Structures are given as structure tokens and as C-alpha cells.
């Protein structure tokens, strides 16, 4: 049976004591728009975690967190900003070896390893007919496909999209602010997606590599 591309799922979150209601909308395969503040795309290994793989019950998560631009990738053209969906390449040769190493690090422990990429994308307009959103999802789809050839681990990308300035919903604007690094909205979304709490994360086996790393109260 063919699935409705734009199937909607009602969601809510608590912001400053108020309940913000929004929609998660399937945008393409393994990709959803989360309200107007975030986008999520992932590989099939991560999907199995979201669907509640019974073999993972009781295990803690070790999160390998990364920024995307100028950490995992850079522009192929050499310009600061990419010129299209295909203007990207792996930033450092070490990225390849490090991702492969993640599979064997603490290989005997009882944790579930997840590669999570958190990226601020203020130029991306998160609406159904947005050209910038269409181009960006093609880009991160190709990134996930490439990374999935380097490691067998679950991979997910969260993007904090443009602040909906034209939207008069104050809570929507607050959600957009919380989503952006160095705040922890994208990390909280990851925990929601894997049905985990902060106590379910093995922090000694987790890290974040990028522009928010090491700041007090940020991604910790």
C-alpha cells in the first residue's frame, strides 16, 4: 500500500508552562517536517530504533553527536555557502576513519550507538512548497547515503530551520529558538524519537563535536 507523502501526526510540547500544538508531517522517505521549527531525516537503522526494536529494551544510548557544516562536510566549490544540493563533500579524510571506529569503540558494552547530526539551517524555509527545503532534503539525503556506506550505525540528521517570522504564533517562534544550537531542542527531539530520557543516555560514552561542544548547559 502506498503511503501518503504528506501524512500528518499531531504533536505537542511544553514551552514556558504553555502547551504548543504542532504537526509532524511526512515530507519524503525517512524524513519529517517537525512543526515549522525543525526537520528530521534518518537511515533505516535509526528507523528501527524509532519503531521500538524489542532487542534494545533496557539498554542505554551512546550518542555520537556532530555539527554538520565545516565538521562533517564542507562545500565542494570552496565557497562559504553551497550553491546547490550537490555542492558538498566530506570535510576531513579523518571523518571516514573516525566514523568506522565508532562501531568498534566500547564494542563489548551494552549500549546502543547512534550518530546524530545537529545543524542550524536558518536559510531553510520549512513549508511544504519551499524550494529551499526541497533542495536541502535532497542534500542531506545524499549525505546520509554516503555516511551509511562508512558505518552500519543508526544515523539521524536534525536541522533547526528558519524562524517563522511571518507566523504570529508566539509559541512557534519560541519553539524555533529552542531548536537552534546552542540550545538543546534538537537533542531533546532525539530523546523523544528514541523514547528515552536523559537518564537513558550513557554520557561517559557520548560526545558532541562541533560549535556548541563544551559550553556549560549546552548539549550536556
TrEMBL record:
This is DEBR0S4_10748g1_1. GO terms for biological process: DNA repair. It comes from the Eukaryota. Gene3D superfamilies: HAD superfamily/HAD-like. InterPro entries: HAD-like_sf, HAD-SF_hydro_IIIA, HAD_sf, PNK3P. Pfam families: PNK3P. NCBIfam families: HAD-SF-IIIA. One of its GO terms (molecular function) is double-stranded DNA binding.
